[in-house]
Design a protein that fits this description.
heterodimer; A: Penicillin-binding protein 2a (Domain 2); Beta-lactamase; 2 domains; B: mainly alpha; two-stranded antiparallel sheet; 17 helices; 2 strands
Chain lengths: ~525, ~475
Amino acid sequence: MNLLNALVESAAWPTLRAGLHVGFFLVLLYFLKRLFDLRGATGLKHLPRAKRSLALPLVLLVGVLGSVLAYQATWQLTGLFRPQFVAFMQSHDRRQFNPAHRIQRGRILDHRGEVLAASVDHRGQVVRVYPSGPAFAHVVGYSHPRFGAAGIEALANVHLNGGAPEDLKDWGELGRQLVTQAKQPRGRDLMLTVDGELQRLAVDLLGPRPGAVVLLRPSDGAIRVLASTPAYDPNRISAALFRGADPALPLLNRATQGLYPPGSTYKVITAAQALNAGFSGTLYCPADGYTTSARYRKIRDQAYYSAREAGRSWGGYGNLDLATALAESSNVFFAQLGVQHGHDAFRRTAEQLQIGRKISLYEGPFGSWAMATGRVPSIHDSDRYGLAQISIGQGAILVTPAHMALITAAVANRGVAMRPRLVASDPPQALARFLPEGSANRLAKMMRKVVTDGTGRGIDVPGLAIAGKTGTAQNPQGPAHSWFIGFAPAERPALAVAVLVEHAGFGSKAAAPIARDLFLRARELGELP
Amino acid sequence: MSTAGTGSTIELSWGLRRPERQLLLLILLAIALGFLMMLGSGRAAGRALSGADLLPFLTYGASLLLLHGLWVLARFRGDQVLPALVALLAGLGLLAQYRMGLLTGAEASHAARLALPAGVLLMGAIAVVGAEGRYGRLVAGRYAIWGWAGLSVLLLAVLLLTGHRFRGGVYAAGFVTPSELLKVTMVLFVAGFIDQQVKALKDLGTGLPIPPWRALLPLAGLWAALTVLLLIQRDLGMLIILSTALIAMLALGTGRLAYLIYGATAAAALGYLLLRLFAHGQGRLRAWQAPFEDPTGGSWQILQGLSGMFAGGLWGEGFGRGNPEYTPIAQSDFIYAVLGEELGFAGCVLVVALFLVLILRGLEIAYRTRSSFGSLLAAGLTTVIAVQTFLNIGGVTKSIPLTGVTLPFVSHGGSSLLTAFASVGLLLAISAGEPAKGRSRTHAPAKTAPSGRPRRGAPQPPPQRR
């Protein structure tokens, strides 16, 4: 006894204990070997031969007990693959040795390798930190011992915890951790397509105003910016956040879930619809507006209102072609154009552009993240005034900023929309053809004209050919929403963008400069040629 | 074999049982290492050690050595593998129970300390007393089997009348569960019954097999009473164990697979009915199917057990280093989770392998026993151990719903442990073979069968039927 006491208190005890552990297993293995070796001597020779074969029970038993062991292994050895189990252990298991408490979750990185989320040791506990704070709250989400997880943190939970190995190397690492009983199992990093610099710039440019910015690469669908303000700080999650008391709705991802009237940016879609139908030539646009029936208020152009405010009279645009009408953003022109092509054409276009569907940004083994696209109203064929309003992006149609960015990207990519993606390792994939190549190319030229000669000329900068469309969306909640959609450079588009600033007035004043600043910074970063 | 009490036969017996001796010594070494590991870890955690801490190991070792000596002296020639397997499993159980503080300290009782050595010696005694075919006297005469049936029902009835409920089950005073004894008494009854009625039971008619109702009627009546009594006690595990043994014995004894099919159908129908009628079962089923719906309630125990096993990983923390006390009532039903936590997945594979060999050995004895009663009894006892093992390990690993049965030889619990040892005692008695009738003296096995088996052409005596 005294000897044992002395041994335990000596420095050699940990080694000795491990040795005892190994010795214990070795003796038991040797026991099994002896059991096998001695089968001749223990063969019950005084009994007759067996009447039946033991093969069937052997197979049956090995099958049943083997399955139980295999199932047990899915908890005991690969429990990391079960996110609910890991969550249970992290919150309810008091065993200090449980590796679940010390999982070094993989980092979440931007496409340049900048760390967006990482696990660090803090007084013996592993906590998650988000160096960019609120800027990435709506993309990366949070992982919190008490409040669970959201965003990519939730969807890629298994991957980040080190489960779901993809190749032989991952399996090898997992096996090594199992055999050596690593007490700090390391998860695997996940690289996103987003760009930390541009995302933070977008959030800064939006400032305190609620809004959203989506910037993506038309050629492969990689999302570089997915910003929504206001956001919350994932480093400081509290119960108050989830009580829904904040009227600014910091939990709402305005980029992918916020539904807004598109305003004049929708004219790009009306123009595409006309180009598809082979429209060319001009439409006469009277100065005092257009309506479908005398009972309804006339739809008028912005120039009419500005002239009236200044006390001048305005002669109207007269005959307008499509390119000029888009550059001037003529309501009278597009209202007439939409009504001319009719309800069926509108419905076909909405269907072709997938407005009203859900488009997935990331598919994980435990759920997917889909963005909303918009809401198409069902208007009766006799409601021509409603159609006229929709054609200029007002009335009952609603879209999300993310989908406007996707449609813009399709225009920039010769009509093909690439599936938007957030995870760098997801392969680029075509989502659908939104419009014919011919229409897309002509539309792209017209959008360039908007910035050189039209409503967007305020953001034309030398050396960078930005194409786009401004929007000013009337809404019942307050002042108009400010929109800008666009891409750059116009000839070989590398980035497409949609910017929305809630209740900020003219698109050319609030939203368009944000897009310009983003493009300029992107060029400095090498994202634009 | 009563007259040859000379030194030479004891010498022969000492030589014959050499493998058992070797295996037992290896086991003692392994368990000793385990004890050192655990005592050291306890000391490292600040617990003072005293000589009394070695007592469980010493009594365990002494009982094994005593067992071996007893068998050598009695010239017992029964199986040598089963005792080794059982001793090792019980040794692992001893370590786990000691680890849970059941053998020392305030909670320990004398009964808990004595259960293991008592079980070992009981096994040895039963094996020796029942050897040479004497176990057949358990069902001598036409009506002895009904004595076993009556005893089984009486045990259940008395338990129901005098026992108290705890955690959904019924226990006699001091948490003794006399119903454990049914695992022996009911198997004795069924084996005897089938042995008596085998002709009638084999007669399933031609064409579509129709069960022989007249012959089965007493069995069916008894089973109905048993089912009702066990359900009132909510002892579903026992019902499953006994019914599986019944079906297996019917099929083995008669050689008719139709009994398997009928049995499976009846079990499915009964299972469905039970789920419909008992909220208790539904709760367990929910905890099994959707453990994360109520993680801190109904699924707490199983999830804590799994958490412990996850913490144990592949090799385990080592004895004395884990925290199995966080799993509620781990020492009885969840002892497998304790082993999983402290010995890891590797230890679990080892335990399962031991049970696998144990079950196969039991079946081999059943298949190689000439007497049909002995064969049936061995098959029945083995099935009981097999089903109980599967229900326990399957339940703890969440492969199947929890049924609340113990792990044979490993779990804490006097009645369960003694019953399991008694079962193996009977198996060993059966493995010792039938009375030799003057043949064995001239027919030393080692000489006639150098290949390890009787010669193919050797005349075999006709199977004995009583």
